């Protein structure tokens, strides 16, 4: 009888990835600058030119940061532990890494670079960490919020192209916090989506739905990002806002938010999402009959948000991005 093969005691055994060593030698990294130089030379082996470009720039800036700050071993280990905790805090419905990107202004910066403004078009804003894929479909005039989630608000408008043409059958995803300043994903007993929904514009590009009046709220402070903000002396509040994501074939996808005016945190938004032309006015409608006509069960008064969304055709978006990139390159070279 043949002997049973011995089981490998290593649970997560590391294996070679099949890539051979380069056909050149590198100097031993006996000096700090040689570590950077060797790594940059190894990146020259990267087949994808874009990945090569991005990674070489990342290494240059990261190594420059380490050199300029003379960061200590203890500080770097704390940084690694912080990022580890950020990852461990993430769940299928909580995105702590997006939150970190948001509070460091990276999300807003990436958004601004990739979505340069086009005259007359609705500007973009940050996605935020609370978007989910499970928003329910609602009909025109339907509600994204269950009863008791906040003060009534009706949202209506038209989705148009930059030339003023209405856009039918555009998909609108919209979500918001409730009157306590919490998103549905922040509740432990969440068993269905709430204060979020998906609808389509009608044949004339119009849309309308029931929601609740948004309120200012703190971003999650119970995780590593919240601790970071306390450490650096920054508040964790976002001004009141309503999220939109609008898509239609042939147009640039729009991710944005609308910010009712008068909020004290508009200019110091914790995630740098507010742009001047995204600040809107809410109308107060004190008409019980009108409230019931619009589908609000208890009637009474409600807020009215009127806003026309303007999408950018793909060719215009491409031209705007190319021009914006050229101008940025010109400014960088000056």
From TrEMBL:
<keyword id="KW-0223">Dioxygenase</keyword>
<dbReference type="InterPro" id="IPR007535">
    <property type="entry name" value="Catechol_dOase_N"/>
</dbReference>
<protein>
    <recommendedName>
        <fullName>Aromatic compound dioxygenase</fullName>
    </recommendedName>
</protein>
<keyword id="KW-0479">Metal-binding</keyword>
<feature type="domain" description="Catechol dioxygenase N-terminal">
    <location>
        <begin position="48"/>
        <end position="121"/>
    </location>
</feature>
<feature type="domain" description="Intradiol ring-cleavage dioxygenases">
    <location>
        <begin position="128"/>
        <end position="311"/>
    </location>
</feature>
<dbReference type="Pfam" id="PF04444">
    <property type="entry name" value="Dioxygenase_N"/>
</dbReference>
<keyword id="KW-0560">Oxidoreductase</keyword>
<dbReference type="InterPro" id="IPR050770">
    <property type="entry name" value="Intradiol_RC_Dioxygenase"/>
</dbReference>
<dbReference type="Pfam" id="PF00775">
    <property type="entry name" value="Dioxygenase_C"/>
</dbReference>
<dbReference type="InterPro" id="IPR015889">
    <property type="entry name" value="Intradiol_dOase_core"/>
</dbReference>
<keyword id="KW-0408">Iron</keyword>
<comment type="similarity">
    <text>Belongs to the intradiol ring-cleavage dioxygenase family.</text>
</comment>
<dbReference type="InterPro" id="IPR000627">
    <property type="entry name" value="Intradiol_dOase_C"/>
</dbReference>
